[in-house]
UniProtKB/TrEMBL annotation:
Biochemical pathway: Protein modification; protein glycosylation
Cellular location(s): Endomembrane system
Any one Pfam family match given in the protein's UniProt record, by short name: Steroid_dh
Keyword Transcription regulation (UniProt): no
PANTHER family xref list: DFG10 PROTEIN, POLYPRENOL REDUCTASE
One annotated GO biological process: dolichol-linked oligosaccharide biosynthetic process
Protein name per Swiss-Prot or TrEMBL: 3-oxo-5-alpha-steroid 4-dehydrogenase C-terminal domain-containing protein
Superkingdom in the source lineage: Eukaryota
Sample GO molecular function, one term: 3-oxo-5-alpha-steroid 4-dehydrogenase activity
Length: 338
C-alpha cells in the first residue's frame, strides 16, 4: 500500500509538471499549447472578459483553503499521535552510530519504503513528517485568514474552473506528500483506534494520555537541516505575508473596483510577483527540512516552481502591457535571472 501511495503521488506530480514545462519551451511549434495552458492559468487581472466561459469567482479560493486546513490538520494530528505512541524518541531507542548521522538531519536519498530504514531512522523520519506538517499548517492557516480578512477580491475577478480544480488537487497532494512514506502506517494506527472505539464504546476506551513535553521534545532533537529549513520557510512566509498585504492595500485604496496601480515595497522592488517568489522560498525550506532525500517532496517543489514561474511570466507581461512606465529593472519572479 505504501509503495502504491508514494508511486501514485510521484506520478501525479510528474503528470502536472510536464504540461507546464512543455508550454514554457521557447518553440513556435508549441505556441498553441502555451496559449491553451495560459487560458487555464489566468485569473483576476490577467483574465480577459472574453475568457469568462467555464470560470468561477476568484473569491472561491477560500474553498480549497478551507479544505486544506481541514486535511492538513487531520494529517498533522494523526501523524503526531502516531509518532508519540509508535515512534517515541527515547534515549534507549538509539545507538550512537546512528544518532550522529541523524543529528545532521539526513535521510535516505529518494527512499521508497520504511523497510529500508533502521528503527532510529524510522523514528526520525516520522518526526520529520510531523515538523513538515506543522509548517504546512502554518501556511494554509495564514492563507485562509488572508482570503477572508486581507484580500478584497473584485466582483469581476474570475479564475478558470481548471485552475480551481488544480487548487484542490494541490492542497490534497501537497500535505500528503510531506508524510506519504509513513501515511499508510498512520492510517492503520488511526483505523485501529476508531475500530476499538466503535467496538468498546467511549466508556470502555482507555484514556489516551499525552505528555506534552514528550510530544514536543522530539522535534527539538531533529538535525540542523530541519532548523535551516524552518528558518528559510519562515523567511518566505513573512515576505509572502508582507507582499499580500501590499496587494490588498492597493485594492483598498483604488478609486474604482477595477483600478490597478503599480505595487511597490518589499520584494516588489525586484520582481513583479514577489508573493510567488516567497512561496517558492518557503517550499524550498520544506525540501531542506525534509532532509533533501525524498523524491516526492522534490516533485512537489518542482511543481510549485513550474506553476508559479508560468503564472509570474503571464503577470509580468500583463504589467508591461498595462503600464508604460513600468520599472524596467523588475524581473518576473527570480531577481536578476527571470
Amino acid at each position: 500500500m505504501e509503495l502504491g501511495l508514494v508511486t501514485l503521488l510521484r506520478a501525479a506530480w510528474v503528470a502536472v509538471i510536464l504540461p507546464i514545462v512543455i508550454a514554457s519551451m521557447p518553440s513556435s511549434k508549441l505556441s498553441w499549447f502555451h496559449q491553451l495552458l495560459s487560458v487555464y492559468a489566468k485569473r483576476g487581472k490577467t483574465m480577459q472578459p472574453s475568457s469568462y466561459k467555464f470560470t468561477v469567482p476568484q473569491r472561491f479560493f477560500s474553498h480549497f483553503y478551507i479544505m486544506a486546513v481541514a486535511w492538513t490538520t487531520l494529517l498533522l494530528l494523526t501523524t503526531w499521535l502516531y509518532a508519540c505512541k509508535e515512534a517515541p524518541m527515547t534515549s534507549e531507542s538509539f545507538h550512537f552510530s546512528h544518532l550522529a548521522s541523524y543529528l545532521t538531519g539526513g535521510s535516505h536519498v529518494f527512499s521508497f519504503h520504511k523497510s529500508h530504514l533502521t528503527p532510529v531512522e524510522y523514528r526520525y523520519g516520522v518526526w520529520r513528517s510531523v515538523l513538515l506538517l506543522l509548517l504546512m499548517e502554518a501556511q494554509v492557516l495564514r492563507r485562509l485568514f488572508e482570503t477572508f480578512y486581507v484580500f478584497n477580491y473584485s466582483p469581476s475577478a474570475r479564475m478558470h474552473i481548471f485552475g480551481y480544480l488544480t487548487g484542490f488537487f494541490f492542497y490534497i497532494a501537497a500535505p500528503l506528500s510531506l508524510c506519504c512514506t509513513y501515511a499508510p502506517e498512520v492510517f492503520k494506527f488511526t483505523l485501529n483506534l476508531v475500530s476499538e472505539f466503535i467496538v468498546r464504546g467511549k466508556n470502555q476506551m482507555p484514556a489516551i494520555e499525552i505528555d506534552w513535553l514528550e510530544a514536543i521534545n522530539p522535534l527539538l532533537k531533529l538535525g540542523w537541516r530541519q532548523w535551516i529549513g524552518c528558518a528559510i520557510f519562515l523567511w518566505g512566509w513573512i515576505h509572502q505575508c508582507r507582499c499580500h498585504a501590499i496587494l490588498a492595500s492597493l485594492r483598498a485604496h483604488s478609486e474604482q473596483v477595477d483600478d490597478y496601480v503599480i505595487p511597490t515595497g518589499d520584494w516588489f522592488e525586484l520582481v513583479s510577483s514577489p508573493h510567488y517568489l516567497a512561496e517558492i522560498v518557503l517550499y524550498s525550506g520544506l525540501v531542506i527540512a525534509s532532509g533533501g532525500g525524498d523524491l516526492t517532496v522534490w516533485l512537489l517543489f518542482l511543481f510549485v516552481v513550474a506553476n508559479l514561474g508560468f503564472a509570474a511570466a503571464e503577470t509580468h507581461r500583463w504589467y508591461l502591457r498595462k503600464f508604460e512606465n513600468y520599472p524596467t529593472n523588475r524581473f518576473a519572479i527570480i531577481p536578476f535571472v527571470y
